[in-house]
Each structure stands twice: as C-alpha cells, then as structure tokens.
Here is the input.
Amino acid sequence: MRSAFLFTIIIFTIFICSCTQSKYALTNKVYRQKAKQYAALLNEYPLKDSAGLSYGAEWAGTTNFTMRRPNYVIIHHTAQNSCEQTLKTFTTRDGREVSAHYVICKDGTVHHMLNDLLRAHHAGVSKWGNTTDLNSSSIGIELDNNGFETFSEAQVNSLLVLLERLKKAYSIPAANFIGHGDIAPTRKNDPNWRFPWKLLAEKGFGYWYDDASNVTLPAGFDHLLALRIIGFDIKDTNAAIIGFKRHWLQDTTKGLSTSQLKVLYKLSTKYH
Here is the structure.
C-alpha cells in the first residue's frame, strides 16, 4: 500500500515537472527557429550583401570581429497585472511583437528571455542624446508592475544584481542606465515615479544630483539646453520636463520651480 502510494506521488511529480518544462515548448521552438534563420543569413554573406552593395570578385573577410554589444540599459514597468501575463505577452505572436531581454517578477525571479546580443522590441520610437534606435543598442528590462505600485525589495535586489553583471560584462557607462519614460517621454512613463532611481545611482547605475539648496543659477541658465545635455529629446518641452521630474524628483506635474531648476542645473553638470 505504502509502495503504491509513493509510486503514485512519483508519477504525479514527473507529470507536473513535464508540464512545467513544456509550458513554453512551442514558443521556445519558434525562438530556436528564428535564431537559426539569422545564423543562416550571416552565413550567406558575401553571396547576399546585407547593404545591397557591389564588391570586388574576390571577397576578403576580416578575421577581427565580434558580436555587437549593448551600450544602454532601459528599465520598464510591464503595465500588466502579473509576471505570468507578461511572459504570455512576450511569447504570443499577435502582430505586436513586443519583447524584452529580461523580466523580473515581484518575488525577485528573473526570466532571461533573449540573448543580450540580440535586438529586443522594447524601446519603440525613442531618442536619447543623438541615439534614435535604442532597440539596436540597448538591453530592455521589464519589472512586473502595473504602473501604480511600489517596487518590491526582492525585485529591486534582483535588478541590482543583474545590473552589476550587465555593467561589468559590457562596460556600460553609468549614465546609460535610464528609463523608458526618459527616452520616450511623450508616450511613456515607466518605470513609474515610485522607482528608486536614487538607490540605483548610489550603486553606480545612473547619475544623481548633489545638494542644490545653496546653488546660485548661472546668469542666462537655459533649462532646455540642460535637459538636452542630460539626453532628453526637447522637441516636446513639456514632456521632457515631466520626464526629468518623474525620474529625479518623483514628481509628475508640469513646469519647473526655482528649486527644481537648481536641481536640473546640478544634474546637468554631471553629464559634461
């Protein structure tokens, strides 16, 4: 009787494990197929030149090359109600084709969904400094958060561990750890204003400002130029101001007070 019971438990456990392992079997198969397609495309060169250019009859392939490396990390909130819902979104072929390299759940679980050296679809239409295709030069990290919540301690701790690894692996400059709302302030506000940017800056991921209470603004201080120096697209000035205030002041209102202008000035000096 006891042996039969144990056998049943073992079979049940194997069944559960097999179900868990096969949950994303179909989409994992699509991932592998697409990876093979891109590998085959690389192998076609120089038979099919990717830029459509003509070249001499004798192709000379350089022996000195590596994969392109990311230079930015863009942090998002998922704007969905669970980690499971986000994983489903990123594994559904419905025409939207949204994705990210990493998803971090509220309990700190990290899902690595795409090789760091491949291009995810997370940034969309965006601009930071002179960079206009952030998808091609960045790693996207999604934090399970519907946009109206604080970020859990476990989630932030996992994020810090991941950022340290990425910064070291790809030599990403401290200034290049930014948010989706920074690079697309006219249409995005993530991660929401509750995100602990100051903590990240203290750990070396992003910049923060020094005490600005006793600062005297330089004559003719141009706040739009300061925003541009930091990296914001100032085509929509109100959006850029809101983006700055959300990230560095945890404020979502329009306009800039004198004290806020002082913070902006102090921050902009970090980016010279």
Summary: Confidence is low (pLDDT under 50) at residues 2-19.
